[in-house]
Design a protein that fits this description.
By secondary structure, the chain is mainly beta. It has eleven helices and 52 strands.
Length: about 1050
């Protein structure tokens, strides 16, 4: 006893005590029948599927026993010694659980039937999978087949419009580039160009876009390395109840991706591939040649009269000069009909002891702009071993290589600001340079990813399970760039950049799952985790390289070269737990807790706590609920919880140092003995010792309902998410010696409503079926707190500003309100004190100018008259999908939409370029020769015009993007894709020794409707809400494919 007490005081127990406790614990799961003698009989049998194929891996269990059972072998056979009056239970994922009474028989065969709704009824949450009907959280699921074979390079692009509350925007048509993905509104306050993104978890492997963004040297979407055709299911965790267990990484929601695993039956070889084209983008409508020349001459005379004709650019007047009398079609030289191809091959088998799935994917998409494109090679391996009945080992490994070509073309012809005049004469060499096809140029972008997860599951008893999981990620990115001397004013210039992220994570957790008297169901999970991330970057440049053939930084003298490198490390330690309980499957409760310690904070603020609670009530299981044929299932649920976020910078909590700098911020300064100097970096934001965790507090109320045997499924959610103590940089007085300070200063609220509706419209005994899935989300974004007494903050340049104001959305665009165009000088307001007409920064306004609203009544328009003009993030968004099937034929149409979104239409304002004060620039830019979408610009006094004068003789800046007349409606409705497929009959397929044969086709980005008269596609705009036409256009795609399974 004394020895025991000593051990206990030291925090330990004798080894024998642990052994006794383990034996006692194990004995809890053993039924009394094990210790009793009964009459046993040897029962054998074969389990087959609906096609009469043997099914290996089926669990065959003795009813009433927790440890007597077996698994069917590769031929679907099993053998058990059981009581002669026993009942067998056959269980297998994806098939209906079946009970069969033995009744003294020695042979029991079974044909198991697929349960088409079983997978839909299970959702994956952090560290567990649960039945959907018992979930108390806001979770949306998308089956892998819903996104399979859509011709997009990245999986999140295929999710567009499929999940209520998940806003996905394809802001660029460039293959492999990033889009916008936000869940339940934007919370990023870093800048007007940033958006908050959810956390991705792929087969238990966390993909931290914050880490990956620090080595973004190629602009390639890091999620594009996942093959969409490898995905089994996607679960989107929206509220804190679902995501709090991920703690510091889940402030913006979680997207859990589960890839495919082997299916029961014979080993399978699956081949799938599609081929297609992306059509040429719609060209900008413009006049060329003689028509362009006559238009510009007429406008100059109309605006400036004969005096103006004396100073016309000679490019316009010299029609006999072969250098300027051309009708060059710039757009046709850089756009093309592009090829798309995708090929998948995978081999899989499910065995009694081992299972595997090996897959390879090749995706290649040429860009519709010549010189661009994206290529992906992805290989993945799934392994599963069950050496003992209590031990399950799983491994997932994925390697991907992504190459993205980016054109080196010298002119962006899609920008209306610089859209060149057709007068230019182009040689063949000019055209090749323009396309970026010069062989001496180089712009190579390469990303490689290796991700792996290994997991061991140990069943101590039927109720007690242990899991150890180890994940590893290694991502590299590299950019090599070279421009020859004859394209760069005699300077042969090269740069080379490379970066890598190494990350590992280990998690250990134990689960206790137990039902008591078939009324009390309890689940307890407790675990611990640790992760580490290492990031390095290397950059170098060389000027005046000796030869254009070298294309790398070689043979460069030191004064013409430069290089830098960086290393960053971070670590996180975590503890987490979950308690779930339900009574009679109708009163539901769940609580989550996570504690994270982050190296990004100082020692006093290192730990953050992230709890959540949720509850649900399945009303239809109550005795008082009337039995009817309408309502199958009604559940109400509610949750509240806190998720967190640590700062983006690894060392934001510490004062920054810099080298070779003087007190004025100059560089190249050394100390007296010639060695480098180190000093505080007064140019970076000074931090606070109190810098702490950002917290996202979220409340959610939801309803799940099924009617008419799941013919109608309705899900609704109302949420409020307060993102508090967000880290923000704010300006400091120059007297402090610093330019900015960093602290937890800003709070943002996102609140909204989400609705998802599924309809199964035709009787199930018909050959026809017709389903409709629709969703809509409304999100209200508003700032709750700002520094310096909630004073508004203006960011950006004077010609393009965004504003942060309490009670308003993040980064609204600002500018001058306008009331049309002044038709005459008399329409311009007159200052009663001076008798002078209103001015614009001191310039007297006149007919043809924009009628700007004088907000402060001083009769002078300046920056003090700017107001908020709108929000670049949409308020409403969603999608509609309908599918009609008849026997083996399927036709689907999917649409998505965005409502109430504002953007700056620089595509319109920039058409004023070359004019404004004179017509001097109209010789080398297209300017007014571009189509104005039917809008009329001012030309003559008294005219009721839509747009201002093209030439302002008073030097009024009518092309300034901040004028409200250049804000546009970013709402749109898009027929996103149309699909059609044919599945050949099973009987016919079996005759040719195949398991499945299917052909299909897709049309992607079919048609878009918008209220913008001048901008081609309002989805195709920058993150900050500005678009000038230089954005890579979204192409129309057409593909045909086939799927064969052996």
């Amino acid at each position: 006893m004394e020895k025991f007490v000593k051990n206990l005081k030291r925090g330990g127990l004798p080894t024998r005590c642990w052994l006794y406790m383990l034996i006692l614990l194990l004995s809890f799961g053993l039924p009394a029948s094990i210790f009793a003698q009964t009459d046993l009989v040897k029962v054998t049998g074969t389990v087959t599927d609906e096609t009469n194929q043997p099914v290996p891996g089926v669990n065959v269990l003795l009813k009433g026993s927790s440890n007597i059972g077996t698994v069917t072998d590769i031929e679907g056979k099993y053998t058990l010694n059981i009581p002669k009056d026993a009942t067998l239970i056959f269980k297998f994922v994806g098939y209906k659980t079946t009970e069969v009474a033995v009744n003294g028989k020695t042979t029991v065969n079974l044909s198991i039937q697929p349960d088409v709704k079983q997978l839909e009824d299970v959702v994956v949450i952090g560290y567990q999978a649960i039945k959907r009907e018992k979930s108390t959280a806001a979770i949306a699921s998308v089956a892998g087949e819903k996104i399979e074979n859509i011709p997009v390079p990245s999986v999140e692009m295929a999710l567009q419009g499929k999940v209520a509350g998940l806003n996905v925007l394809n802001i660029t048509g460039e293959p492999g580039a990033k889009g916008i993905v936000t869940l339940r509104g934007n919370t990023s306050i870093a800048s007007q160009d940033s958006r908050s993104t959810p956390l991705y978890v792929v087969d238990g492997i966390v993909m931290d876009e914050g880490d990956l963004g620090q080595i973004d040297l190629t602009g390639t979407n890091p999620i594009a390395g996942i093959n969409p055709n490898d995905i089994e299911s996607i679960d989107v965790l929206k509220d804190a109840s679902a995501s709090a267990i991920y703690g510091a990484r889940a402030a913006n929601g979680v997207i859990i991706i589960k890839t495919k695993t082997p299916k029961a039956g014979k080993p399978q070889v699956r081949l799938n591939g599609y081929y297609g084209v992306a059509m040429k983008p719609t060209m900008r409508s413009t006049l060329v040649g003689t028509a362009e020349r006559h238009l510009k001459m007429d406008l100059i005379y109309q605006y400036l009269g004969k005096p103006g004709m004396e100073n016309v650019n000679y490019w316009i007047t010299d029609s006999l000069n072969p250098a300027f009398n051309n009708h060059t079609d710039w757009q046709s030289n850089v756009i093309q009909k592009a090829r798309i191809q995708n090929y998948d091959v995978n081999v899989s088998a499910y065995g009694e002891k081992t299972s595997y799935r090996l897959s390879y994917n090749f995706y290649d998409e040429e860009g519709t702009v010549i010189g661009t494109g994206f290529t992906r090679n992805t290989a993945s391996l799934y392994l599963n071993a069950r050496p003992y009945s209590f031990l399950n080992l799983t491994g997932n490994i994925r390697f991907s290589e992504m190459s993205r070509k980016k054109t080196n073309g010298s002119i962006n012809i899609f920008s209306t600001w610089s859209f060149p005049s057709s007068f230019f004469k182009l040689t063949d060499e000019d055209i090749e340079n323009f396309k970026g096809n010069n062989l001496d140029e180089l712009d190579k972008n390469l990303n490689r990813d290796l991700y792996a997860n290994f997991q061991a599951n140990i069943d101590f008893t039927p109720y007690l399970k242990w899991t150890t999981s180890y994940s590893f990620g290694y991502s590299t990115t590299r950019n090599d760039y070279f421009i020859p001397s004859y394209r760069n004013d005699g300077n042969a210039y090269a740069t080379s950049s490379s970066g890598s992220v190494k990350r590992w994570e280990i998690e250990n957790y134990i689960q206790y799952l137990r039902s008591f008297k078939e009324t009390h169901n309890l689940s307890v999970l407790f675990g611990q985790g640790a992760e580490y991330s290492y990031i390095d970057n290397l950059w170098g440049e060389g000027n005046y390289i000796a030869s254009n053939s070298i294309q790398t930084i070689q043979g460069v003298v030191s004064k013409n070269s430069n290089a830098s490198s960086s290393i960053e490390e971070r670590a996180r330690l975590s503890w987490f737990a979950r308690l779930s309980y339900d009574y009679k499957d109708k009163y539901l409760f769940s609580a989550n807790w996570r504690m994270d310690g982050s190296s990004r904070f100082g020692k006093d603020n290192r730990w953050g706590h992230f709890p959540s609670v949720s509850a649900g009530w399945i009303i239809t299981k109550e005795s008082f609920f009337p039995e009817n044929q309408v309502a199958d299932f009604i559940k109400i649920r509610g949750s509240y919880g806190i998720t967190g976020n640590d700062p983006a910078g690894f060392y934001d909590a510490y004062r920054a140092l810099t080298t070779n700098v003087d007190y004025r911020g100059g560089s190249g300064i050394t100390s007296y003995n010639g060695s480098g100097t180190i000093a505080y970096d007064f140019g970076s934001a000074v931090t606070s010792r109190e810098l702490g965790w950002e917290e996202s507090k979220q409340m959610n109320f939801g309803l799940d309902a099924h009617f008419l045997n799941k013919r109608i499924i309705l899900t609704g959610d109302y949420y409020i998410r307060d993102s508090e103590s967000m880290i923000f940089n704010y300006a400091l007085p120059v007297t402090t010696g610093y330019t900015e300070a960093k602290n937890n200063l800003v709070s943002v609220r996102n609140s909204g409503v989400e609705l998802q509706l599924s309809l199964d419209l035709l009787p199930h005994n018909w050959d026809w079926s017709w389903t409709i899935d629709a969703n809509i989300a409304m999100n209200k974004n508003q700032i709750k707190k700002l520094p310096n007494g909630n004073r508004s903050i203006v960011t950006g340049s004077p010609w393009m500003e965004w504003i942060l104001t309490v009670g308003r959305p993040l980064y609204e665009i600002t500018g001058w309100r306008s009331n049309g165009i002044y038709a005459t000088d008399d329409d311009v307001p007159v200052d009663p004190l001076t008798g002078n007409r209103m001015t614009f920064f001191g310039t007297t306004m006149q007919a043809g100018d924009i009628a700007v609203v004088d907000q402060n009544g001083d009769y002078n328009i300046d920056y003090n008259d700017k107001v908020s003009l709108g929000n670049p993030d949409p308020k409403y968004y969603g999608g509609i999908n309908t599918t009609v099937r008849w026997k083996g034929i399927s036709l689907g149409v999917f649409c998505n939409y965005v409502i109430k979104r504002t953007f700056w239409n620089g595509f319109l304002s920039d058409r004023m370029n070359g004019g404004v004060y004179s017509a001097g620039g109209w010789g080398n830019v297209s300017g007014p020769a571009l189509d104005f979408g039917g809008l009329k610009y001012y030309t003559t006094p008294g005219q009721q015009a839509d747009l201002p004068t093209l030439i302002a003789t008073n030097h009024m800046d009518n092309r300034h993007i901040a004028h409200e007349i250049y804000t546009d409606n970013g709402s749109f409705f898009r027929v996103k894709n149309i699909s059609m497929s044919y599945e050949f009959p099973t009987a016919l397929v079996n005759k040719i020794k195949l398991q499945r044969l299917r052909v299909y086709g897709y049309m992607d980005n079919v048609w878009v409707f918008s209220k913008s008269k001048t901008y081609p596609d309002p989805e195709n705009i920058n993150t900050n809400g500005y678009a000038n036409g230089s954005e890579y256009p979204l192409p129309h795609k057409f593909t045909l494919g086939a799927e064969i399974t052996f």
